[in-house]
Amino acid sequence: MDIKEAIERRKSEIERELIKSFDRVWEERLKNAMTHLPSAGGKRLRPALAMISADAVKKGEGKRALPFGITLEIIHNFTLVHDDIMDNDDLRRGVPTVHKVFDEATAINAGDAMFALAFNVLSRLDVDDSILREILDDVSGMVLGIAEGQQMDMDFEERMDIDPEEYLEMIEKKTALMFINAAKNGARIAGAPPSVYEKMAEYGKYMGLAFQIWDDFLDLTADEKTLGKPVGSDIRNGKKTLMVVYTLQRLEVPDRERFLNILGNEKASDEEVSEAIELMKKVGAIQDAESLALEYADRAKRALGVLHESEEKEALLDLVDYVIRRKY
Amino acid sequence: MDIKEAIERRKSEIERELIKSFDRVWEERLKNAMTHLPSAGGKRLRPALAMISADAVKKGEGKRALPFGITLEIIHNFTLVHDDIMDNDDLRRGVPTVHKVFDEATAINAGDAMFALAFNVLSRLDVDDSILREILDDVSGMVLGIAEGQQMDMDFEERMDIDPEEYLEMIEKKTALMFINAAKNGARIAGAPPSVYEKMAEYGKYMGLAFQIWDDFLDLTADEKTLGKPVGSDIRNGKKTLMVVYTLQRLEVPDRERFLNILGNEKASDEEVSEAIELMKKVGAIQDAESLALEYADRAKRALGVLHESEEKEALLDLVDYVIRRKY
Predict the structure, then answer these.
(1) Predicted pLDDT at B94
(2) What ipTM was estimated for this complex?
(3) Min Cα separation A317/chain B (Å)
(4) SS3 label, residue B91
(5) What residues of chain A lie within 8 A of the CB of B29, using their CB?
(6) Contact A136 B144 (CB under 8 A)
(7) Closest residue to B108, CB basis, from A85, A122, A133
(8) What CATH number should be reported for the domain holding residue B74?
(9) Quick one: closest CA in A to B80, which residue?
(10) Which of B178, B187, B242, B257 is the most exposed place for a label (fewest CB within 10 A)?
(11) pLDDT by residue (tens digit) across A9-46?
């Protein structure tokens, strides 16, 4: 089964449970602010991944992982509500952001309430109490890690001397941690032993890293029609991607000066953006990022060797292909 | 033992554990933002209350309740960090607020990270796993309730038709829930049965309600020297206290119009503030709020009837007197 179908099969159940989880919020304006983003759609990739991972360990256990998946989806949405305030973004999933529809104070408060609700849903997870304790440790550590990744990302905006290792740590925290948790604890909820769920964590890690690196790679290599935005917009925005990190580390003056003049210049012409991309290619930055993404994808797939054959395992393999299949 | 000494005896242990809990935060700027407010001091009333409640149930169990107390203290501080952004306040505990020292994005992120850390500390609580599950439900429900209370408080700013019952629900959520949790789960961690810890919840509820009502009562009845701020500043700020809620419900035109002209007028003269206070007295609003606070204080004390005699019980009784002892 491909990943698209595996998600589709679970989506209506996920969305029903997700919306139902907000029933215990009584204050009307707060509830409206909390449900605004979750109701606006989304791929539901994280809860689906938790459920598919559970079913891959033991068919039929996906349903038991559902509340955990809802916890992750609410946390994912809460981080987006707060990120949009931090970045002062006006749109998300095609609709105005929570702080634009309501106000900033309500959006901060709604994010906090979503975070609390996520842990409240978790308390009703149908697993042994001792496993719940471990998952509480994991999920709370995950949110702390995401906040660290977010802070690193903000700090990087001012820095030109980022080490590739630091960069990878940042995206592991900011992006991959959620996938690590979904795959690992989805498997654990289905009764997987540590030898299995630690491999699932590895799967989530490398899939998440490949996903983020590929996403940035596409921005420079896909065409405008595929991207739905101008090629190289990350360069104009000054985004510190792995490719930019490599480039800043490898370029010498005067090329480095030239590159820094273009990076983050919102008014850079298409010719200048092309020039920056050529400089990145010259030092092998784009090629190396592509290779690393492919290597990570390979590692993610190999980690799944621990699973017996099933259509859910196929879907998990296909998800890896999906994140690097999106074409340039 | 009086409450002051009971807190003092536990304070250094609380502060040591509190600071230690931030050790697992690695990102420097984030850690600095997270520790800014907790390091600036505070009464440590909530963790102390959890420990004293545990010791009151079974001498020596206070130490077991310490991580739970740290969870509450971190949550309390996180709500203050976010509240200060929402209210755009510059100072807290005599030092600049987190969003002023760092920036708003970092303050939002640091608050989120503190929230996550609080639940991470909770996962290491030394109680049966089944009790941890119940406490997780309680604490996450508490934070959700606090967010609802905060939202009600913000919504009240625009409203002139608040029902006293609604007002009491708001302060029960925004202020009393933390005390309910501290007393109830402190007792539960020490092994109290439901018949005891539910009474401790009642104690926390009425003590918290009395505390908030008395705080607002003092603003109108204490002298400037005692308050450290001008008498009636709540009237100039338009704060919807229980006394204002009663007054708005009871005054008839033209007095009601006159009162509304003064309420929320930052430039109101001392004479006008006195006039507003006279109108509040005329309809019995101040007297009724005082009576209610005293009644709640009494209920809080009576709930402690479930405890055997001990110096910790004395301290809990003294805490009730303390919240209404502060003089006018």
Answers:
(1) 85
(2) 0.95
(3) 32
(4) strand
(5) 151, 155
(6) no
(7) A85
(8) 1.10.600.10
(9) A109
(10) B257
(11) 999 999 999 999 999 999 999 999 999 999 999 999 99
Chain segment A63-90, per-residue pLDDT in tens? 999 999 999 999 999 999 999 999 999 9
Tally of domains within chain B? 1
Indicate the average pLDDT of chain A. 95
Range of the domain at A54: 3-325
Residues in chain A within 8 Å Cβ distance of B30: 147-148, 151
Cβ-nearest to B27 among A27, A108, A151 = A151
What tens digit of pLDDT does each residue of A118-158 get?
999 999 999 999 999 999 999 999 999 999 999 999 999 99
pLDDT in tens, A288-313: 999 999 999 999 999 999 999 999 99
* Contact assignment for B143 to A113 by CB distance below 8 Å: yes
In B, minimum Cα distance to A111 occurs at B112
Quote the CA–CA distance of A320 and A312 in Å, as a whole number.
Answer: 13
